[in-house]
Amino acid sequence: MHIRTAAMADLAAITAVESACFPAAEAATEADFKARLSVYPDHFWLLEDESGTIVSFVDGLVTDEPTLRDEMYSDASFHDESGAWQMIFGVNTLPAHRRQGLAEQVLRRVIADAKAQGRKGCVLTCKDKLIHYYGKLGFVNEGVSESVHGGVVWYDMRLTF
């Protein structure tokens, strides 16, 4: 397995992984990913298997805003490369590759890179069933998010360095 950052050539594969991992109401579209990749491809961490197939990835912009807001998902202009917080939009692992520690491997790389880049920390939202999972990585539950993304309840999670 190998982790690398993204390029526009990865657009179709990233979109396919996302749609396999999230319901349509929550999944980013190809247009969303195209906009993101055009602004911050280095904030996509792709985990490839031995054949070069993307099996897991994490993406998100960087901002000085301390809270992940729904508008950030569809507006790449929120990205500020010198921002304090690495936002995490999606943690994706293809269903056939789950329960192998791949998402954790990618997340640990995201965290290490954010630290090396001098960020204050990482921020994400998750459903209640994943609070414990992210807690194991040091994220702290800050309560129910204001997010209405996908029409479900999200929790704000923060890892401060």
What does this structure look like?
The protein has 161 residues and is of the alpha+beta class. It has a single domain (2-160), classed as 3-Layer(aba) Sandwich (Aminopeptidase), CATH 3.40.630. The chain has helices spanning 11-21, 30-39, 70-74, 102-116, 131-136, and strands at residues 2-5, 44-48, 54-59, 62-63, 85-88, 90-93, 121-126, 140-144, 155-160. The strands form 2 sheets. A 5-stranded mixed sheet has the order 4-5-7-9-8. The chain has a 4-stranded antiparallel sheet with strand order 1-2-3-6, with helices on both faces. It starts with a strand and ends with a strand. The model has no long low-confidence stretch (mean pLDDT 94).
Strand-helix topology:
Layout: E1 2-5, H1 11-21, H2 30-39, E2 44-48, E3 54-59, E4 62-63, H3 70-74, E5 85-88, E6 90-93, H4 102-116, E7 121-126, H5 131-136, E8 140-144, E9 155-160
Parallel strand pairs: 5-7
Antiparallel strand pairs: 1-2, 2-3, 3-6, 4-5, 7-9, 8-9
Helix pairs in contact: 1-2
